[in-house]
Design a protein that fits this description.
This protein is mainly alpha-helical. Helix content is about 35%, strand content about 5%. The strands form three sheets. The chain has a two-stranded antiparallel sheet. Strands 3-4 form a two-stranded antiparallel ribbon.
């Protein structure tokens, strides 16, 4: 989208815009919002640090715990894969042919283009090497933020006065924290049957009706967000203390800059990756997070690796 590049990578004062770093690689970016999602390996300018689909793709290639799942699909299946979800994108198909070797690989399809029909009956061609450059290639998938970008924003801006929120954003941008960095990303299936084949959870609950304890969702995972928020609040609380102290002791009218470390946020992303991959086949993130939210806060913090 044209407006994606215009956004400044933060949600605070305009003066923070100069701290936003958009690099032509996965590293050294500084960004607190998700504002670049479209990705094509054949389109110049899309492989940048702010682009979370690009980052998720790079992480999946580099991280064996992700790659082994995404490449672990069976190639001896004979039955088509049911994808008849009412909420699926119109460009998706009502069924997918059983994958051949290389059809679902991160750099696939490798044996030749995949040709199928979308929900409207129109022909769709997935070119060689273009898997995961779109959300329905080779199957419905999402580039998931392990620390959700909206949750990060909500916890930071809950600080009052707003100057404290701005100081925290400044500190994180100076530290080159990037919520879209590959270590905070997980390429994850959306279709339950596909998730079962990959032994992975699926991104959003949708309207599958397989968990009566949580509400169906289409665009979000509120239970998962609430689980992450437990750990995130403790981390941001430490940042808030640093900002409060600096602001109370400031001299003159200038807003002081603060120095923050991104290490605890990066560690939280790593703990979340391990946790999510342990959840296994087909269940949604919300379904598993809902069970964890019933634990005491101390138990949740331990599970998330937050001290």
């Amino acid at each position: 989208m044209a407006g994606e590049d215009a956004q400044q990578g933060h949600f605070g004062a305009k003066r923070l815009s100069k701290l936003h770093k958009r690099e032509k690689k996965t590293e050294d970016g500084a960004c607190l919002t998700g504002h670049q999602a479209s990705y094509s390996k054949k389109t110049a300018g899309k492989q940048v640090s702010c682009n979370y689909r690009y980052q998720a793709h790079e992480q999946a290639k580099a991280e064996s715990s992700i790659k082994s799942r995404l490449h672990g699909y069976p190639t001896n299946r004979t039955a088509a894969i049911r994808t008849a979800l009412k909420v699926a994108p119109p460009r998706y198909s009502t069924s997918i042919a059983p994958p051949r070797k290389g059809d679902w690989d991160l750099d696939g399809p490798t044996s030749g283009p995949i040709v199928r029909k979308n929900k409207a009956g129109r022909k769709v061609t997935i070119p060689v090497t273009m898997n995961f450059s779109q959300d329905t290639w080779p199957y419905w998938n999402n580039a998931h933020h392990l620390i959700p970008k909206g949750t990060l924003k909500d916890v930071i801006v809950s600080n009052k006065p707003a100057v404290i929120s701005n100081m925290i954003q400044q500190g994180l941008l100076d530290a080159k924290y990037n919520v879209n960095h590959k270590k905070n990303m997980l390429m994850i299936p959306q279709d339950r049957e596909v998730a079962d084949l990959l032994d992975m959870p699926r991104h959003i609950q949708l309207k599958e009706g397989d968990d009566p304890n949580i509400s169906a969702q289409v665009f979000n995972h509120p239970e998962y967000n609430d689980m992450v928020e437990v750990g995130l609040k403790k981390i941001i609380r430490a940042y808030t203390k640093t900002a409060d102290n600096a602001y109370k002791n400031k001299t003159g009218h200038a807003i002081p800059n603060i120095t923050l470390s991104k290490a605890r946020l990066v560690k939280l992303s790593g703990s979340l990756l391990t946790l999510v991959l342990s959840w296994g086949s087909g269940v949604s993130l919300d379904s598993k997070a809902n069970v964890i939210l019933k634990k005491a806060t101390a138990a949740i913090l331990k599970l998330l690796g937050v001290k």
